[in-house]
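COMPLEX REQUEST
Ligand: zinc ion
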Amino acid sequence: MYRIKHIIPILGLLLLGWGCNQETDVKVIPYPQSITEEEGYFPIKENTPLYTNLQGEEKSRMAAYLQSLPAPFNGELQEETGAEGGITLKITPTAQEGGDESYALNINPKGVVIEAGTSAGLFYGLQTLLQWIEPAGQTTGTVRAATIQDAPRFAYRGFMMDVSRHFRSKEFVLKQIDALARYKINRLHLHLTDAAGWRIEIKQYPRLTELGAWRPAERWKDWWQGEGKRQYCEAGTPGAYGGYYTQEDIREIVAYAAERHITVIPEIEMPGHSEEVLAAYPTLACSGKPYTSGEFCIGNEETFTFLENVLTEVMALFPSEYIHIGGDEANRRVWESCPKCRARMEQEGMKETSELQSYLIHRIEGFLNAHGRQLLGWDEIIEGGLAPNATVMSWRGEEGGIKAVRAGQKTVMTPGAYCYLDTYQDAPLTQPEAMGGYLPLEKVYSYDPVPQELTAEESRLVYGIQGNLWAEYIPGDEQYEYMMYPRILAIAETGWSQPERKDYPGFHARALQAVEWLQANGYHPFDLKNEAGRRPEALTPVAHKALGKPVVYNAPYNATYAAQGEKTLTDGLRGDWTYSDGAWQGFISSQRMDVVVDLEEVADIHSIEADFIQVTGPEVYLPCEVVISASEDGKAYTELARYTQDVDRNQPVCFKTYGWQGDAKARYIRYEARSGQQYGGWVFTDEIIVK
Ligand SMILES: [Zn+2]
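STATUS: Structure written out below.
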């Protein structure tokens, strides 16, 4: 008895230690590289002095930032003399060995010293200190003694804010910069232009903001789908919705971000996504008329004059090394029938319109490079030949990034499946309408920006990671924050922390606390503690009579949404909250699903059922008609159940089971489901369950 009593607690401790590589009471996001906790603590009081050896502009920039914090951080920033009893921010040239953003934070009962080779390192050491103070979220209290050595994994840790689909005020942008900086994000990519509105004052082209920044409908969805759709209106028209940043606003945003070590990267879309430009300046469209396309005419020299003039004003406002030129989703068909574009193709010896796109990207890259800037674009910029110095933002999976890296060019990883924060973060039925998909915090966190197939040499060109928050379905500011937090924190930690320091249970506990901090500081994050989580059906495989049995497809499944191919509907695996998870199989050919499950012998059956998913955005609908029938010989079928219904298009996301219950003998089970002919669209199911 004596022995057993003592063994049990020791085993318990061991078990607690396993599977968790993080100290449980460390609440810092992103998790630092190394923490050595020591004896004692240092008290931070309202009058604790601050010292620094920063000089000149760097000192005034740090002082300006500190003014935005509560006491004692907003106190006078005194000259460092080696005095104890305070918080010292110290530039030490040797500390730069860990990289530009590295720092060492030492806390002992005599004081706090942050050492770094750069002011960025000091800034990040300060962010860690602010999260180290107890009680959490306060700026006075105690800090436990420790030595923390820290440096980021990636140089580029970004967030993209879409201010085109719904305009956000300057104040809103500044507020988000505060939170992004706290979590060591260092790039803010502003999606400033798109069909839904042009958001930056350009002095030489006033029509961009007199007309291109305003539309008659507030909600993007109404504007995109409604009557008189996709039109613009003059500024000042009653009911006009929109807005833009003046050049003065931009200077303020850029300076505010710089104080917080965030570089603001502007995105000016070309050659597609430019309906608003062509409404304001129709001569730049192939047709010469407004509302005819979203693509610039690449055969027209005026297009280049316009783009270079715009970029000249943009470069004067944004000191960023990178200028993002979009480059995505151009509809190249408009160029095929344009005499100017055809003449350009002939003159340049081009065969494909993709080369026209590439011609524009190369030319714009030359212009940016000549002004000391680098081109950043979505991964379509690879098509038709990658511009020689461009950095590729890989959004359609990782392929674009891998291609860029193998061509010796840098990439920022931002694949939709992990980094698109406009998707549902929890069970869709509990959430405001979103773009679709299902991307919970855990999945964002699980992403590693270095694809496994890259060599160590190639992986050095993976410049970093970015979370993107498109705003088509996000009219309000509070909803924007709700979609952004806490998922952007998972991006922040993935960008900063080494993979071996990542641990989801530990991160989840820290994210819960971060959500409290965000709430207490006026943000509107998704309340992580109420997360409903994955679709219950998807958690455990289902056993049933058709498990592993062959399925004959009378109508083919779609190759893109094949899931697990012919095994999908009898593999026991149910789908999650999104149809693209590899468990749901999609049918669009002849707008129907029509399959026969062969039980391989006649059996007594009592129920047949299958679930369907509806996501109206991408035209995935519940079936309008379902027919379930059964046969002993595969020739003569008896109809067991039939449902017909009108699909409710007002339900953005829903799930429904269509089944039969009774007593029958059958070997073959035929399941047919038709999408509504009047709507077209997809049907998706995950499993035909026979019991
Ligand atoms: Zn043209």
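REMARKS: The two ends are 51 Å apart (CA to CA). DSSP finds 19 helices and 24 strands in the chain.
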